Amino acid sequence: MKPSSSLQSAVHLSKRSTRIWRVVQTIVWLIGFGILFNLIFFPSIGLHLFWNILIPVAPVLIVLAVGVWRNVCPMGVNSLFPRHMGFSKRKSLSAAQSGKLNLIALIALFIIVPLRHAIFDTNGLATAILILSLAAVSIIMGIFFEWKSGWCSGLCPVHPVEKLYGLHNKLSVPNAHCSSCFRCVTPCPDSTPGIHPMSTTKTRYHKVAGNLMVGAFPGFVWGWFQVPNYHGISSLDQVVMIYKMPLIGLLVSSLLFLVLKRYVSEKIIIAIFSAAAVSCYYWFRIPALVGFGIFPNDGMLIDLSGSIPKWSVTMTIFAFSVFFFWWIVIREKKPLRWAVRPAYASKKSRI
After folding, report:
1. pTM for the full model?
2. Residue 79 forms part of a structural domain
3. Phi-psi category of 147—alpha, beta or left, where left has phi over 0 and alpha has psi -120 to 50?
């Protein structure tokens, strides 16, 4: 007799695999702590480590292996610490509450990212305070709510990006956090093959968040790169400047999405807008990292403008764009889970 599909989709980590994942999680968490330490005491180093190394690597990791990121994300580790230690209140979220958290997370993303230009990209202490604040919120969500429902699949501002970029990840890894499935989120983003921002339509909050993330994000990314960095906010005009272009891009992209979705299948349009968003990010980010950015010194890791020809950078970003459109839109793929679901918890253990 063949095992049922539910048994085929369930997996228990061996003790050895669990130890390996815990070691990796600890190492990544310590790296994050080291970056935080540098942001406070050696801000120039910390800013480079965080904004010019860690953050530029994250999108391509999410595209290729979002499950790996979900397993080792330091914020995720923070949020699940109360549950692993047994002092979480384990409250369940209703569909409406979950939808509200998803929408708040998306709004937070659109508010925080433009502030990089005025505060976070040039102020190590401010970035450290932002990280500590998000860490505190993640732990609080873990104290009150069951497993990943409160933070990882709820209020985390990166989660909408995970669902947009992680459409066709390459690896389906074991879930290194959940020893059993308590159905804390339905559908579970980790174990639902091919999940995307518009997969959940239970409430109007889910619908608004999903449509806004897919439609708005490519334009928002483009608009963000049209704004220079400032050293602090000295006037209302600066606030207008840092939000104006991202919001213009967001509106134009959203309108284009609303028009195209009437004529293009949902699956294809989501894939196109996903590829467009991540391609746009690297189209501007890679030149900036090596000294060829629109605004000199903004987001620069190392100045190679006098060492390599500009055409080589252009070829690189073009290759990245071609790859992402092939990977997300064109390539034949079988939808994979981000992580393999563990066995369902018994009724007794849910109490």
Report:
1. 0.92
2. yes
3. left
